[in-house]
Amino acid sequence: MSDFLLIHGAAHGAWCWLDVIPELQALGHTARAIDLPGHGADATPYTDVTLDAYADAITAALDTPTILVGHSMGGYPITLAAERAPQNVQMLIYVCAYVPKPGLSLSQMRMEAPYQPLLPHIRMTDDKQGWTVARADLHDLFYHDCPPGTVDYAADNLCIQATQPTSVPVTTTGRSAPIPRRYIRCADDRTIPPEYQITMTQDWPAGHITTMGCAHSPFFAQPAALAAHLHGFAQG
């Protein structure tokens, strides 16, 4: 069986994977999640958070070949971590995540989508180095198909998202090219348009992609189904 390291997306933390970890363990895997700098229990000020720091935190957590799973924004740091420590990355799995394009930051990729559902809801900090989303918008953007209580739980744990990690590109080279990559699309996503998830993976082999009929937070909406898809990719 496999070792999974689960990487959260923007403003989230390891806490968002709490329902998925036991599901993966029940399937025979080891699974863990970490807080990236400035998220969850990590007290790094958002003004000091960088994409490099995200990648460093991931590589520091790797000591054996591991399947890296990145949600949403997490697609960028898992890709960079694979460049830095390819020997410890068994597979990259993107869960309704951005797959870095050469020369483009995540923010630039977001603007390539046919529409930007998140953009009107972003509230910048006064120093313009971070952003948040108003509590009133969380249900419709992230959690509309999740169990009762999810919004309250998330609102208590979401943090300021630093802008720097989304403002710089990731350069990929031959170091990470041999690493298998898989993608889980979310067909009812209200944050990253499903159409753009298709665009990002349109030239991938069909067997490397699967689709869940849920929104942007499958770890809350369908944790058992998400774990089953991760298990399937690991077995394949």
Automatic annotation (TrEMBL):
Q: List the Gene3D superfamilies.
A: alpha/beta hydrolase
Matching Pfam families, A to Z?
Abhydrolase_6
Q: Which InterPro entries match?
A: AB_hydrolase_1 (IPR000073), AB_hydrolase_fold (IPR029058), MES/HNL (IPR045889)
Q: Which GO terms describe its molecular function?
A: hydrolase activity
All copies of domain AB hydrolase-1, residue ranges: 4-228
Query: Would you indicate the residue range of the signal peptide?
Result: none
Q: Does Hydrolase count among this protein's keywords?
A: yes
Q: Which UniProt keywords apply?
A: Hydrolase
Protein name (database record): Alpha/beta fold hydrolase
